Amino acid sequence: MFRTWTLLTTVVLSLFLVAFGGCGGGGEEKATQTPAQPTAATTTQIAGGTPLTPTFPGPATATVTVGDQSFTFTNGSCSKGPDDAWLTVNIGAIGGVEYFALGVGNPGGVEGVRLAKGGGVFTGDEVIAVSFKFRDITYTMHGAEGNRVTVDADLKAGEFVGTTLDGEPISGSFKC
Fold first, then answer.
1. How far does Cα 68 stand from its chain's mean position?
2. Cα gap 3→25, rounded to integer Å
3. Which residue in 6, 9, 171 sits closest to 103, CA to CA?
4. In the chain, at which end, N or C, are there fewer CB atoms within 10 A of the end residue's CB?
5. pTM score of the predicted model
6. Contact 51/138 with Cβ under 8 angstroms?
7. What is the per-residue pLDDT across 115-150, written as a single tens digit (0 to 9) for each?
8. d(Cα 136, Cα 118) in Å, to the nearest integer?
9. CB neighbours of 171 closer than 8 A, spacing ≥ 6?
């Protein structure tokens, strides 16, 4: 439980602390990770003396469209909290060159914020964040007005739509 909460905290904090920006152009970009078997999060040390970075190998995929650019992420993992309180999708290494992260539900047991259990449409405080980084540009969508994440009842797939922190339209989908 402590390890799960620590990993969730790392993901959530990383989502809110990342730099954000935008880029122009069009077309589809692919962000892929080395294929791996589904496992719990692991850590990777990039160079001697640098902090360990959590990585999340597995079968999860995500597609994201920001403005007129599309991105595809593969080989990530999905995690659920106790009693399906929350759902996170992580592909790549948080803070790495390329990653995707999504979180919905109630990881902190906050009164009035519903659990991820049973899926549905998540808005406001129920949307922890959607964030991805590609080629040193990070895009983040959080629970602002008009932003929503829709999750299937089994918590194995969903879609999101809204606006990034810098005003870019964002949409996409994920699958666990």
1. 20
2. 40
3. 9
4. N
5. 0.71
6. no
7. 999 999 999 988 888 999 887 789 999 999 999 999
8. 35
9. 64, 65, 159, 160, 161, 162
